[in-house]
Design goal:
Helix content: over 70%
Oligomer: single chain
Pfam family, one: HEAT
Protein name: PP4R1 phosphatase
Largest sheet: 2 strands, antiparallel
Structural class: mainly alpha
Low-confidence stretches: 245-270
Organism: Pomatostomus ruficeps (Chestnut-crowned babbler)
Number of strands: 2
Order of helices and strands: HHHHHHHHHHHHHHEEHH
Keywords: Repeat
GO molecular function, one term: protein phosphatase regulator activity
Strand content: under 5%
Mean pLDDT: 83
Amino acid sequence: EPTVRTELMEQIPPIAIFLQESRPKFPTAFFEYLMPIVVRYLTDVNNQVRKAGQEALLILLEQDLVAQSDIENKVCPILLDLSAPDSDDEYKVEAVNIICKMASMLSRTTVEHMLLPRFCELCSDGKLFQVRKICAANFGDICNAVGQEATERLLIPKFFELCSDSVWGMRKACAECFMAVSYTTSPEVRRSKLSPLFISLISDTCRWVRQAAFQSLGPFISTFANPSSAGLYIREDGTLSIRPSAHDVNSNSCQPSNNITLVSSSANAA
């Protein structure tokens, strides 16, 4: 019964955590018995079972419960098979979605060597626009996972393709993640390549794409600032934040003189 298998998948993460905490008593139980079940259910015929298996896998990766050898020898190969060009459409969409979600939880080497080539192929998938849209929506996360060198060498050309995709939803997704992509590149690439590309999005024929681009304009401009002087940085969740300067950290904000100076400066500026 699919419902039984689904329920089983939901119990895998807490069981795995228990086994990890009791590892001296059960040193190999998770790797020998539970991990093979999770991998097998990623290809289950029932989509609810597959979804439960995918969620369980992401929890296990987030909790750092899956060994690197299992990731490279069991998990990645099955995802590559499911996302192959001749794979079933439903399986392919699910596979690219989980590849994008797990990229931030794996080592840079694993992502770059095992998953990045397939991700680049999926960005150009001419059969399913859903696949391209997932790639576009998660593009910033993939750039962050592989770093500047791989981003500029392999991903930026694909980003240009997606930004000029015939489906407006693709271009909108690119506009929404533009800041995250820009943050991963060098100032020169940001200036010479991404700036003209952003102008094309902000001038797009589709109103929804233009609106998304205008909403990303401020965050995109912020990536040109020097983090050490501007204090702007990108959090792990991809949001823009402000890091207090060393002067602010060392100063006592309760001192009346500091507050008076700030108010006075604001008043003068006004």
